[in-house]
Known about the structure:
Elements: E1 2-8, H1 15-28, E2 33-37, E3 49-52, H2 59-66, H3 70-83, H4 85-92, E4 100-104, H5 117-129, E5 131-140, H6 147-164, E6 168-173, H7 188-193, H8 201-205, H9 208-211, H10 214-227, E7 232-234, H11 240-254, H12 265-273, H13 284-299
Parallel strand pairs: 1-4, 1-5, 2-3, 2-4, 5-6, 6-7
Helix pairs in contact: 2-3, 3-5, 6-10
Amino acid sequence: MVFGQVVIGPPGSGKTTYCNGMSQFLSLLGRKVAVVNLDPANDALPYECAVNIEDLVKLSDVMDEHSLGPNGGLVYCMDYLEKNIDWLEEKLKPLIEDHYLLFDFPGQVELFFLHSNARSVIEKLIKRLNLRLTVVHLIDAHLCCDPGKYVSALLLSLSAMLHIELPHINVLSKIDLIENYGDLAFNLEYYTDVQDLKRLQYHLEQDPRSAKYRKLTEELCEVIDEFSLVNFSTLDIQDKESVGNLVKLIDKSNGYIFSSIDSSVVEFSKIAAAPLGWDYFRYPLLVFIIIFSKQAIYLQ
């Protein structure tokens, strides 16, 4: 069983920097890490690349040969990779025995909620190589300083979650730089927990560009609230504690925390009986079920 991360996010959100920093951090933890570059536009890699899509197809060649722009070229490259998935599979086979995988994907957001090529690549790798992957979706934290951009980031995150259908962690990257872009309208927890979005309406109406789309914005916020799926973790890639907290979340989501445990009833029962790390008062119904179950066992 192989574990890893699918790193996505808009251009400039810090995907390549993240892969570089995360690979170094995981190496310090004793994991053998292999970074797989699947971004054919990324020609300046700061990390040692185990597999590089440019060995299969180059964006510059595609643009020249087919007279395509960058966006069309990236879609073509993903389509070409999907049709040549055997190439990628053969490259990964020597790594899956003992490596933790980081997949660095392109920053074109359309690939993850409009087109199916990138999703198909991920699905085929999961089935063929028995991978356990978590999507790490990076969003630049400075978008929180603009209510309109923040709502757009929420929509993008929700769309990607619904489209890819994998364990998914949304991350506000470059959190250490957020103060450089001005004061937030609310405290940071408001933006990470994605609380009542109606509170943003006042601030949106202060911007003449956003005011005329008031009704549309209200409807979009209602959609986000109704799904109630999106929240964010924060990340400063230079801060070991910040990276460590994110690694814990990722390991829980893809099951890595169970990888070194003998899958017996006894071992898993020990985990189940361990103290829980959540607030009981946030889940009153669950607490009631647990108490009722214990009483039923006692009565038996």
